[in-house]
Amino acid sequence: MIVFIDTSILGQLSNPNQLSEIVECQNWFEHLLARGVYFVTSELCFYELKRSLILAAQTGYSARGISKLDALRNVIDFLPVTQEVAELASQIWAKARQEGTPTADEKNIDIDIIIAAHWQILKKEFPGRMVIISTTNVKHLRLFAEASEWRNISY
Predict the structure, then answer these.
(1) 68-98: per-residue pLDDT in tens?
(2) What's the structural domain count of the chain?
(3) What tens digit of pLDDT does each residue of 136-151 get?
(4) What are the b/e assignments for 44-53, b being 16+ CB within 10 Å?
(5) Nearest by Cα to 53 from 44, 42, 61, 45
(6) For 131, which of 2, 83, 92, 152 could close a Cys bridge (C-beta 3.0–4.6 Å)?
(7) pTM of full prediction above 0.85
(8) What CATH number does the domain containing 95 carry?
(9) CA 58 to CA 113: how far, in whole Å?
(10) Distance between CA 79 and CA 87 in Å, rounded?
């Protein structure tokens, strides 16, 4: 099984707070990791989260989230936005607009579409393996990929 972690889930995994939902999500991740699940995300998700963590640290919040995020690089593969990903994402974006199902404002970079392109490429690269996006934004991602809330993904 391959689980693609979106920015919201990456944020929960790097969150240093001990709130029950955060701890539950981190336990879920550790459990699946121990069972051999391959976790990936996009460098864009890293960017999206890291910039927020840096800003928070600069305004007086703890910087522990930054070090937790950086440590996740040891167990999650961060996929680059290659030419293949950009080409496919452009096609998905245009098709979504044409069909009246945009996932973001036209001027927005629309990371959901880039995540969907990563997912489609992973499905092609690993035929027969389950590939699913773990997200809190199931509505948009399900238009172009298999996506589920982290609680509903098990192995």
Answers:
(1) 999 999 999 999 999 999 999 999 988 887 8
(2) 1
(3) 888 878 888 999 999 9
(4) bbbebbbeeb
(5) 61
(6) 2
(7) yes
(8) 3.40.50.1010
(9) 30
(10) 15
Give me 137's structure tokens: 């934004």
Contacts 24+ apart (CB under 8 A), 66-75: 66/14, 68/13, 68/14, 68/15, 68/16, 69/10, 69/14, 72/10, 72/13, 72/14, 75/33, 75/39
Q: Which domain holds residue 137?
A: 2-152
Beta-carbon contacts of 56 under 8 Å, excluding residues fewer than 6 positions away, are: 65
Neighbour tally for 86: CB within 10 Å? 12
CA distance 13 to 134: 12
SS3 12: helix
